[in-house]
Amino acid sequence: MVLSPLDIHNKEFGTKMRGYNVDEVNDFLDQVIKDYQITLNHNKELEEQLDAANEKLKYFNDLKDSLNQSILVAQEAADKVKANSQKESEIIIREAQKQSSDIVSEATNKGNQIMNEASKRAKKLAVETDDLKKSTRVFRQRLQVMLESQLEVVKSNDWDSLLKEGSMSSYEEIKKVVGDRLDNEGAQGVNSEASQPVADQAPVTEAPVTDSGDDNGETVVIFPDNDQPQFDKDKQ
């Protein structure tokens, strides 16, 4: 048991012959009590400081543990965020690649479709151009045959004989000669046209010329096979 200053002060000693001086012993005890009280007070202060230091140490230890736990939680959260970000970036990249692939595929298909349609149109246009050239060539040949037959009629010597001054040919004779000439030339034109290749043959119909008062001197040539009628106007 630790002695207190009061225990020292109340301590009583027995007396014997030739013992210590009572006053000196009491004075010494008083001094011991004072020093011991000072030591006790100092120890108490030290204990209080130690308790405060222990409390602070405990607080800092708890704070350290809390900080460590927070750091761990933050690290885990950062790892999760990083993992989620990486997953999202991979998903975005895959979706972007898929979309780009779809766009390229769609553009390729559309381009191929446009090229096919353009090729078909070009082929169709080439066929139509060839057909137009054939129709134009047939028309040219028919027109040439008709003009040559008409020119042969005009260049015929029978005209000179009929129109010679002093000739006594009657109207019926002139009409018969002209009619026979036109019929012969028309037959020659038909025969000439028949000698052409089958693909280029087509009948030519020439409208007759009348002597009525409403006649304007027009010659109408009608071509079959959906060709439009050609009008040759020769105003007199």
Architecture overview:
The chain has 236 residues and is mainly alpha-helical. Helices cover 72% and strands 5% of the residues. The protein has 4 helices and 3 strands, in the order ααααβββ. A 3-stranded antiparallel beta sheet has the order 1-2-3, with no helix packed on it.
Overview in brief:
With 236 residues, this protein is mainly alpha-helical.
Task: For the structure shown, list the relevant keywords.
single chain; 236 residues; 5% strand; three-stranded antiparallel β-sheet; disordered C terminus; mainly alpha; 4 helices; rod-shaped; 72% helix
Q: Widest sheet: strand order?
A: 1-2-3
Q: What string, H for helix and E for strand, traces the elements in order? A: HHHHEEE
Residues in helices, as a percent range: over 70%
Continuous helix count: 4
Radius of gyration: 69 Å
Secondary structure blueprint with pairings:
Blueprint: H1 5-10, H2 22-155, H3 157-163, H4 171-194, E1 205-206, E2 218-222, E3 230-233
Antiparallel strand pairs: 1-2, 2-3
